[in-house]
Task: inverse folding
């Protein structure tokens, strides 16, 4: 799906039929990659940290070899965004927080952000409600960021980024209401 960053791979000159075949393979790979809704190590709502950690480590090694580190790290982050909450309600769960901290990867954190934002889907509202839904989302992520800030600084930063993006969206919706009322 994504081009390798390995410089030693030869550029391929493809015929029309080869290009179509490669395009079909890429489409199938894209569908496969984006159809997986699981999280390694997740069973019955609990994440086995050892299984998750092994999956992340092995995946990162394979990404390094194939020259797909940047996009691969983002895809790992998107997967981590599927984390359940801890029994006390803190999101993401401890196993995922530990992986984020150990990985120490901006690309993984970006993927985590993208994954969580994309998971929300489409919203609908009364045209005059403004950004109340987004303020609620921002408050949720801020609460979780506050709960993990001392022990998990990278997770804190990622959660703050999500909260800030929802606050930005809330302001945009509020501004839209203000324009409608003029």
Result:
């Amino acid at each position: 799906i994504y081009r390798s960053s390995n410089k030693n791979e030869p550029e391929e000159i493809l015929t029309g039929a080869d290009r179509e075949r490669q395009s079909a393979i890429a489409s199938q790979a894209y569908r496969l990659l984006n159809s997986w809704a699981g999280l390694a190590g997740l069973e019955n709502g609990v994440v086995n940290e050892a299984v998750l950690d092994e999956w992340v480590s092995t995946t990162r090694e394979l990404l390094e070899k194939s020259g797909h580190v940047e996009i691969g790290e983002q895809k790992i982050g998107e997967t981590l965004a599927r984390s359940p909450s801890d029994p006390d309600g803190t999101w993401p769960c401890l196993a995922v927080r530990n992986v984020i901290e150990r990985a120490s990867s901006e690309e993984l954190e970006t993927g985590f952000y993208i994954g969580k934002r994309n998971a929300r889907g489409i919203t609908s509202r009364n045209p005059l409600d403004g950004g109340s839904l987004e303020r609620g989302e921002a408050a949720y992520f801020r609460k979780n960021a506050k709960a993990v800030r001392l022990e998990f600084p990278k997770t804190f930063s990622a959660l703050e980024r999500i909260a800030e993006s929802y606050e930005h969206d809330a302001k945009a919706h509020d501004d839209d209401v203000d324009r409608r009322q003029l």
Observations:
- The two ends are 48 Å apart (CA to CA).
- The beta strands are 42-43, 46-47.
- Residues 153-180 form the longest helix (28 residues).
- The longest strand covers residues 42-43.
